[in-house]
Specification:
With about 260 residues, this protein is of the alpha/beta class. It has a single domain, classed as NAD(P)-binding Rossmann-like Domain (Rossmann fold). The chain contains seven helices and eight strands. Helix 1 links the parallel strand 1 (about 5-10) and strand 2 (about 30-35). It starts with 6 loop residues before the first strand and ends in an 11-residue tail after the last strand. Bound molecules: nicotinamide-adenine-dinucleotide. Nicotinamide-adenine-dinucleotide binds next to helix 1, helix 4 and helix 6.
């Protein structure tokens, strides 16, 4: 897909990976609809994009809320006339100190934002992209690829996003391409907050050798958008580079 002149809706688009991706899309001539719960960062982001000549708007919406999400898609069409790219990127981490010591409501929130928010985004985008085609990119995490003992609910939510992507790809075909990026620890406000929470909870997090730049994640997202051959791809980004995560095959019968 040629990005110039296309419209992208980015959830979690005013911070970290979402905002960096928005900047790179804007540099290639995309129109931006930034969706987030953070009004202040949204207003600031739109101001700076508009002053740099990008057609950009912000909508305050919660990815867990069907009515707010519907309004965001309607607003995107009303403002820009089309939806070509959806980046389902909003996410939160699980509060520490961990699984059985946090309230049920807290881990339900992680599943609602990190998994069901992505499902809802895909669900609402598909009918709008059917005619002209489009690209959906979901953000999972390396936590969805490997077991994460310290944060099993976040890991389960992100594994769900990976499986959703592989499964949707089977019936969405080449017209609507669905792909997924799985960042390792990336230098964003979310990661920095997580380190502070773990420290405050007395947990000793495994040493982080090198944080990944948000630009490295955004580059993979742009590749998914621009390369028409990429559909149903799940790519893990580590400090050492990008790696494809294959869909799981049916298991062999046990002897
Ligand atoms: N930073 C990392 O190390 C890392 C690693 C793996 C995966 N991820 C994933 O990358 C994505 C982006 O995270 P980031 O690191 O850029 O964090 P970030 O906190 O900088 O950005 C996340 C954005 O999502 C928004 N958001 C949160 N809940 C929302 C909701 N219910 N509705 C709408 N918006 C909401 C936040 O306000 C924020 O602006 C997330 O899905 C996260 O799980 C991050």
């Amino acid at each position: 897909m040629v990005i110039n002149g296309k419209t992208a809706l980015i959830t979690g688009g005013v911070s970290g990976i979402g905002k960096t991706t928005a900047k790179m899309l804007a540099a290639k001539g995309a129109n931006l609809m930034l969706l987030d719960v953070n009004q202040q960062l949204g207003d600031e982001a739109v101001k700076s994009f508009q002053s740099a000549g990008t057609r950009a708007a912000f909508i305050r919406a919660d990815v867990r809320d069907e009515a707010e999400m519907r309004r965001a898609f309607e607003e995107t069409l009303a403002r820009f006339g089309r939806l070509d790219i959806l980046f389902n990127n909003a996410g939160i981490s699980t509060p520490q100190p961990g699984f059985t010591r946090i309230a049920v409501e807290q881990w339900k929130r992680v599943l609602d934002v990190d998994l069901l928010g992505v499902v809802l985004g895909c669900y609402l985008a598909f009918p709008l992209m059917r005619e002209n085609g489009g690209v959906i990119v979901n953000t999972a995490s390396m936590a969805g690829v490997y077991p994460i003992p310290g944060d099993p609910v976040y890991a389960a939510a992100k594994a769900g996003v990976i499986h959703l992507t592989h499964s949707l790809a089977y019936w969405s075909g080449k017209r609507i391409r669905v792909n997924c990026v799985c960042p390792g620890q990336t230098d964003t406000p979310l990661a920095r907050q997580q380190f502070r929470d773990e420290k405050a909870a007395g947990r000793i997090a495994p040493p982080v050798r090198k944080l990944i730049s948000p630009e490295a994640i955004a580059e993979v997202v742009l590749q998914f958008i621009e390369d028409d051959s990429l559909a149903g791809q799940v790519v893990e980004v580590r400090p050492s580079g990008a790696f494809t995560v294959e869909a799981r095959r049916a298991p062999k019968k046990r002897e």
